[in-house]
Structure formats: C-alpha cells, structure tokens
Specification:
- The chain has helices at 41-57, 70-85, 89-94, 99-102, 146-171, 178-182, 203-209, 259-264, 310-315, 328-338, and strands at 32-34, 60-64, 107-109, 115-117, 120-121, 124-130, 192-198, 212-217, 223-227, 234-237, 243-245, 253-257, 274-277, 288-295, 345-346, 352-356, 359-363.
- By secondary structure, the chain is α+β, with helices and mostly antiparallel strands.
- The chain has one domain: B-lactam Antibiotic, Isopenicillin N Synthase, Chain (Jelly Rolls, Sandwich).
- Strands 1-2-12-9-14-7-6-3 form an 8-stranded mixed beta sheet. The chain has a 4-stranded antiparallel beta sheet with strand order 8-13-10-11, with no helix packed on it.
- Helix 1 links the parallel strand 1 (32-34) and strand 2.
- The longest helix has 26 residues, at 146-171.
- The protein is globular, with a radius of gyration of 20 Å.
- The N and C termini lie far apart (40 Å).
- It comes from Russula earlei.
- This is Clavaminate synthase-like protein.
Amino acid sequence: MPALVSNHPPVRRWIPAPVTKEENIDWADLTFVDLARAKTPEGRAEQVRLARDATHRQGFFYVVNHGLDQAIVDRMVDIAALAFDDVSEEEKLRYQARMKETGEYLGYKLPQYWHIANGVKDRIEHYNFPRDTSRRDHPTVLRPFLPEIQRMIEFTHCEVLNEVQKLLSLGLELPENALPDLHPFDETNHSFWRFMLYNPRTQEEEEKTNNIWMKGHADHMSFTAIWSQPVTALQIKDWDGQWRYVRHVENALVINCGDSTEYLSGGYYKSAVHRVVKPPADQEGYRRLGLLYFHYMKDDALIAPLLESPVVQREGITKSISGDPPTQETWRKNRTAVYGVSQLQRGEDGTEYEIVNGVRVTHYN
C-alpha cells in the first residue's frame, strides 16, 4: 500500500472524539492476530491457532501489524466525513441506495430507515461503494478521492481479509487458499466499502430504545472488517452470553465473523452477534464515524459446509441451511432487502426474528 504523497487533493481534518476515560467498563477480552508474525513458519502456526480459537469462541478479534500507516487511515476518515458534511440533501437523494429493490447497499442509506424500537427509527447514515468503485457514479465531492478509496478497498480485501482467511483455512486443516479462493478480488465478487456515521439522539429516543442505536445481529456476509475508531459504542454478545464493549485500539481492525463463514465451517466458526449502544457519558454528543468493509464470497459460491475439512468431519455439522443451500448472490440480496424494515416476529426468549431463505435470523434488543 503506497504511503501518502504530496499530490493528493487536500481535505480538512476530522476531529475524533477523545478516548473515554470512564472506569468500570466491561471490556471484551479479544484476541490479537498479528499479520507480521504470521510471516515466519513458527509465527504462522501461532497465528493460525489464535485466529482459529478466537473465531470458534467469539467470532471477533483484532488484526494488528497489517502494514498500513495510521496516517492513511486517518486521511480516509477525513474523506469519509465529506460524504456526510459536504454533500447536499438533494444530491444524497440522487445517490440513495435501493436496498429493497436491488438487494444491495450501494449509495446512501439515509437516517430514519431502520426501525429500532417503540416507533423510533435510526439516526445512522452511510455511503457504500462497490468493490470496484468504477462500477457506478459517486457524489461530486468524493470523485477526486476515488483512487485512494479504491486502494483502501483492495488493501482491506487482499492484504487483510484474504490473509486472515488463509489462517482460518489452515485452522480448518484445509489448504491455505481454500477460503481466499472463494473470495476473489474480481467481477464475481460483490464485497463493498462503507463510510458510516452515527448521529447523537434525543433523550426521549434513548429512553424508548433502552439506549440501543443498532439492534444486536450477526452480519450475513463472510466477514466484516471494522477499522477501529474511538467512540465506545460497539458491543459483542460474548461467549458467555454477556454484552461487552469493544475497546478502541489504534491502527487495528476488528474482524467480525459473519453467517456465511459460520455455515461454511458447519458451525465451527461462530458468527458474532453485536450491537451499537449509546456511548459513555464523556463521549455523549460526538458523532461516530467509521470505515468498514463487508466481505462476500463470489456470487455463485454455495452457502454450505466445506465437507472436505477434517475439522468439520471431526467436529460435526452444527449449523447448516436446510434444503438446497442458496448461492452467495441469493443470500446477500435477500438478507440486504429485508434488514431493518421487515415485520419481525417475537421469540419466546424475548428476541425478534424473521425467516430468510428458510433460516431464522435473530435480532436482539
């Protein structure tokens, strides 16, 4: 990944929130996977074990020493702010995503689209780029930065997630390219990049939603890569069923295992249930701006267990889709179209759920 150079177009700085100083926060104990250490045989064996066990137990872990300078990540956050602060409402509407119609997030998801609870809708805004940014047009202010955004997408896909997938392939006792080969960086792949902004809410909205900004859920794709940012609001439903906060780690990514990988591994790797909640008191009023990459398999891949894995054979299949498994294309479009807007049913355990492709998809308030 090339370093910053002087001929990049200028962009004003985004001033991030200070890291919380509140005590008594229940932090999740997440594993650190070090990609630099994975370059030696001894270190690689260690990182395979760490990545495998973390994904089996929690479905969340950090990636560090990935090779990208913090300054490039900071600049990408600066660019992200333009998508929300320097684009008119009229232009946002022109680039509004048609999730229900297309099953894709590409373009803007504007606030007040998803239902949270008790009549309260979200205050979340995001702008989504296809894996290949040239596939579609973009708001005027973002166009000068498309080469940088494209390089960031490729880095996250190929140098981070595909490297993680090599470790997890070995964790399933498969050839290291088993998972990366299912996630090529080409026209068959519809992974996407997101600039995401959480806006503060009113006290009335907080009370009606019990401080939940986004319901607990598992992502439907293979993995989500979240570049760590300082507003403490992301929680995981941990291995013991408790909700715990994800701590900010400078220049780290939080890797989130999704449902597709859980099905590929027959349930051995766990898709991570997570949610976003009101930040601590010393971060109230700050906007939460993030960089995320949602990683899919190629469209014709089946959402079905990798039966050739000795781990899957030995551990057995605990999670699979009954009947004919859907393709990645069918799965991603159907899950995207209904998220946050379908009529949910109430489960006996107090959760809410919907049925997609014959699968019970659970939402946690």
